[in-house]
Amino acid sequence: MSYNYFSKKILILGMGLTGMSCINFFLKQGIRPKILDESKNPKNLFKIPKNIKYSLGNLEHKWILESDLIIISPGISSLKPTLIKARTLGIEIISDIELFSRETNVPIISITGTNGKSTVATMITKIAQNAGYKSFLGGNIGFPVLKMLDKTADLYIIELSSFQLENTFTLKSKIAILLNISEDHINRYPQGFQQYKKTKISIYNQAEICITNSNDDLINDLAHIKNKKWISFGTSTSDYHIHHENQDNFLFFKNKKILNTREISLYGYHNYNNALVSIAVSDAMKFPRNKTINVIKNFQNLPHRFQIIKNEKGINWINDSKSTNVNSTEVALNSIKTTGKIRLLLGGDSKSGNFNKLKIYFKKLKIKIYCFGKDGIKLSKIYKKKSIYVENLKEAMILISQQVKPGDTVLLSPGCSSLDQFSNFEERGNLFIKLIKEIT
């Protein structure tokens, strides 16, 4: 163990997957932390070991200011007044990612971005495994990083949200990737997009190789990060790019053709960029190119990420429940090729996102928008002519079942957080799938 936590008063905030992994991490060292959760009845309460002190209902607790070290779960804002006060008193507040990075010397590939993180992280993990590396994937994808410490590994791949990066300070990635950046979680960042962007960019701070998207134009934002190897993708002048030629799209490195996108199973133009990044990482890791291409050709869309559920009677049903921000809905709308009408399910908690940028699509597309959830009424006003408000996903699907025609595409791409009506985006996507089965 590289850090000594024995003499410290340790407090864990949050009883979700992250919090539970932190408890187990410390118990293995013979250390008993305390734990707080904002919920009065967290679902993991029955898993808390008998010898662990806990408190429920809110975070306004004297334990915070009595601690030496606080490990904060990503769902909890670092900007709560009590935590700001704790910092001014010199109390250390870190993420589980920070805890993890202190404990390992295994090379790490870290991935963040507004969209596409899970797809790229999973693709890279499969490529690494295909190349013979003992590789494990964790982080924001739903497998806590601390659990990976129990495994003997050649390589860790970690998916990171901005929330996890807020309290991560010593992560030394072999390769760090910022896939793309657009407005998201603006309700969490009082200083707006710039603060969100700065948090995302921090992934590069101590990385050896940095992979960056030329479309994001971050040159001024990255000027302070020195002595790195930079690899770019995304535009025609980038190291890795997509080249259009005679009705086909090809993946290129510099002036060398790598692959025709027709050979890729993944659906949607954004996924060609995801494949491009995975090739850039694989080349930087010196994985055999044939092992990389083999995985990319056969890789399927992950569940809830522009996943085609059914295509029958001329109706296409697509589950894009992982779409939790405006940009991801925009990407989904750009990926649909149809002669019929798009029936878009939009709604949930909009997190103060700017949905007006979808108006241009709503005007030009043959589309009907079914707005539901917490911000459904607000969303239905963006383009009233083609929108309708319903209370929830089930009501929307009943309506769609009465109106859908051959040639139509039914797209669940909510652009919003699911937490107003569901416990997560998977639950939302699974209900959509269940309702499709009932309808069809």
TrEMBL record:
Chief localization: cytoplasm
Binding site for ATP: 113-119
Assigned keywords, A-Z: ATP-binding, Cell cycle, Cell division, Cell shape, Cell wall biogenesis/degradation, Cytoplasm, Ligase, Membrane, Nucleotide-binding, Peptidoglycan synthesis, Transmembrane, Transmembrane helix
GO biological process assignments: cell division; cell wall organization; peptidoglycan biosynthetic process; regulation of cell shape
Reactions catalysed: UDP-N-acetyl-alpha-D-muramoyl-L-alanine + D-glutamate + ATP = UDP-N-acetyl-alpha-D-muramoyl-L-alanyl-D-glutamate + ADP + phosphate + H(+)
Residues passing through the membrane, by range: 6-27
Gene Ontology cellular component annotations, sorted alphabetically: cytoplasm
Domain Mur ligase C-terminal: 304-414
Enzyme Commission number(s) from the entry: 6.3.2.9
Pathway as given in its UniProt record: Cell wall biogenesis; peptidoglycan biosynthesis
Keyword Cell division attached: yes
InterPro entries assigned to the protein according to its UniProt record, in alphabetical order: Mur-like_cat_sf, Mur_ligase_C, Mur_ligase_C_dom_sf, Mur_ligase_cen, MurD
Gene3D superfamilies from the UniProt entry: Mur ligase, C-terminal domain, Mur-like, catalytic domain, NAD(P)-binding Rossmann-like Domain
GO molecular function: ATP binding; UDP-N-acetylmuramoylalanine-D-glutamate ligase activity
Entry annotated with the keyword Cell division: yes
Subcellular location: Cytoplasm
Domain Mur ligase central: 111-281
Functional summary from the UniProt entry: Cell wall formation. Catalyzes the addition of glutamate to the nucleotide precursor UDP-N-acetylmuramoyl-L-alanine (UMA).
Annotated NCBIfam families: murD
Family annotation (HAMAP family): MurD
Family of this protein: Belongs to the MurCDEF family.
Entry protein name: UDP-N-acetylmuramoylalanine--D-glutamate ligase
Origin species: Buchnera aphidicola (Sitobion avenae)
Gene: murD
